[in-house]
């Protein structure tokens, strides 16, 4: 970290009201790396993200396209097309910006275990 660089902690970020309809354009699956997917889901007026093998976490809007997590110091920016549908997201964490392209198609249905 450079001398004098300001570090913004999650507690210093400000949640702003956003029309929950914009969330519909963000719901989907985004590939950060092979076999490491960020899944974005909507529950009522809240947006969540879940990485492969990790718990589901709520993300909070700082603007229509910029979101932050409260439990870890990470932010997500959605890159959208002219219709407001996300084509990728950018995960800002640990001083890195990781681009994750949207995966087309619906997630595969959960496999049922039969006895």
Q: What would your notes on this structure say?
A:
This protein has 115 residues and is mostly beta strands. It has a domain of 79 residues: Lipocalin (Beta Barrel), CATH 2.40.128.50. It is built from no helices and 8 strands. Strands 1-2-3-4-5-6-7-8 form an 8-stranded antiparallel beta barrel. The protein is globular and about 35 Å long.
What is the terminal separation in angstroms?
54 Å
Global Rg: 15 Å
**Basic shape:** globular
Please give the order of strands in the largest beta sheet.
1-2-3-4-5-6-7-8
Look at the structure and give the CATH class of the domain at 25-103: Mainly Beta
Helix fraction bin:
under 10%
Low-confidence stretches: 108-113
The strand count comes to 8
Largest beta-sheet characterization:
8 strands, antiparallel, barrel
Q: Structural class of the helix and strand makeup? A: mainly beta
The DSSP helix count reads 0
CATH topology of the domain at 25-103: Lipocalin
Query: What is the N-to-C order of secondary-structure elements (H for helix, E for strand)?
Result: EEEEEEEE
User: Beta-sheet strand percentage?
Assistant: over 45%
Q: Mean pLDDT across all residues, rounded?
A: 87
What is the topology?
Elements: E1 28-33, E2 36-43, E3 46-51, E4 57-61, E5 66-69, E6 74-80, E7 86-93, E8 96-103
Antiparallel strand pairs: 1-2, 1-8, 2-3, 3-4, 4-5, 5-6, 6-7, 7-8
Quick recap of the structure?
By secondary structure, the chain is mostly beta strands.
What labels describe this entry?
disordered C terminus, eight-stranded antiparallel β-barrel, globular, about 0% helix, about 120 residues, Lipocalin, mainly beta
């Amino acid at each position: 970290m450079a001398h004098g660089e300001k570090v913004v902690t999650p507690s210093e970020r400000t949640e702003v009201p956003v029309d929950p309809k914009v969330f519909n354009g963000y719901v989907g699956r985004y590939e950060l790396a092979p076999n490491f997917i960020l899944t974005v889901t909507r529950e009522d007026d809240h947006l969540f993200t879940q990485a492969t093998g990790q718990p589901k976490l709520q993300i909070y809007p700082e603007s229509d396209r910029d979101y932050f997590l409260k439990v870890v110091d990470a932010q997500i920016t959605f890159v959208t097309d002219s219709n407001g549908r996300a084509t990728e997201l950018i995960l800002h964490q640990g001083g890195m910006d990781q681009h994750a392209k949207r995966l087309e198609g619906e997630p595969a249905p959960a496999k049922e275990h039969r006895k």
